[in-house]
Design a protein that fits this description.
By secondary structure, this protein is an alpha+beta fold. The chain is built from 5 helices and 7 strands.
Length: about 170
């Protein structure tokens, strides 16, 4: 009836479930001269399997979203515990990238050397050694790239005031 009243109307589409099966009904207007309504073509397609698959995909999507939310919460909790541990340790922790530039240090490390965070981040680890200890550090860092790594070693870092600070370095 809608197609008869407005023959310029786009095809009508309707999904309907009946007796456990899904069908998609489509109606197309047949137009004659001057776009006059001549009749309609109606089509019914069984889309039960499509609807079942859509529901299955929706269930999987919801399940995966729940897993992601759960894992994200667990990761955030773990990161928070790790952050608290690292920030409250009495030992200094220092992390450098593959080029030996400082990427992280905990408050205790900064305190030991007398620097503010913005004074250390991005600087080469080697900047914090005196001349003698720098040569040893360069050799040890070079060895580390070749994987000839010791368990740990003792050395001295240079504080902001120029004082040698004894440390154990764990590669």
């Amino acid at each position: 009836e809608r197609l008869k009243r407005d023959p310029t109307q786009a095809p009508i589409e309707l999904d309907k479930q009946s007796n456990g099966r899904w069908h998609r009904f489509r109606s197309f207007a047949i137009r004659g001269e001057e776009d006059s309504y001549q009749g309609a073509i109606c089509q019914s397609i069984d889309i039960t399997e499509q609807k079942r698959l859509e529901a299955e995909v929706q269930n999987y999507t919801e399940h995966l979203e729940q897993l992601v939310q759960k894992r994200t919460a667990e990761l955030q909790q773990s990161e928070e515990r790790y952050r608290k541990l690292v920030e409250t340790m009495t030992e200094g922790i220092w992390v450098a990238d593959e080029n030996w530039n400082t990427t992280f240090f905990n408050p205790r490390m900064a305190e030991m050397l007398g620097y503010r965070p913005e004074e250390m981040i991005g600087r080469s680890v080697l900047d914090f050694f005196d001349a003698e200890n720098r040569r040893q550090a360069e050799q040890r860092l070079s060895d580390r790239r070749g994987r000839k790594v010791e368990q740990y070693y003792e050395t001295h870092l240079l504080s902001k005031t120029g004082k040698n600070v004894p440390v154990l370095i764990y590669p």
